[in-house]
Amino acid sequence: MSQASKIALLKEMLDSAEANVRSAKQILSEMTGGTGKTQYAAMAEKVGSMSGNAERHVIEGVFDGQNMIGPDKKSYSVPANYASKSKLVPGDILKLTIMEDGSFVYKQIGPVERKKIIGTLTYEDGQYKVIGNSKAFKVLLASVTYFRAEVGDRVTIVIPELEDSEWAAIENVLPKSLDEEDKDFADLDI
User: 181 and 170 in one domain?
Assistant: First the structure.
């Protein structure tokens, strides 16, 4: 076996081991009821702020995949259609303005570093997921319907580059003709 082949084999083995560790952590988190919110709550305490006056109240916090966690550790509901269209990923910093009439206005003010991967859309346990890089990433139903994706479709997802996340944002659905022409798209980092 040549040195280049050995290096390629070692890289493949390390990638597989890393993927197995990520999957084991995800399963353990799901079994113990951990949602990663403490990680985002700690981030929100560092970056978040709260202010207000008679006309509006402003809260800065961190997106956890479904909600914004404020510096007060409270969870603020982010509309799924906004999260989907904005392609929010866990770790993004948001500003919530609560208007005098009670309406919520969100704005992304600090996107986290991102990377894209290609995976396959699945549906299990009442949740859409994308399998990519040997891991299952949860995605919002609003993203699936917005892109008119179907189970089995190959999709590009966006995930935080540096943080391990159980959530991803759908970037796009790959055309079926592209998927049929090139089967080498399986679990690519792009």
Answer: yes
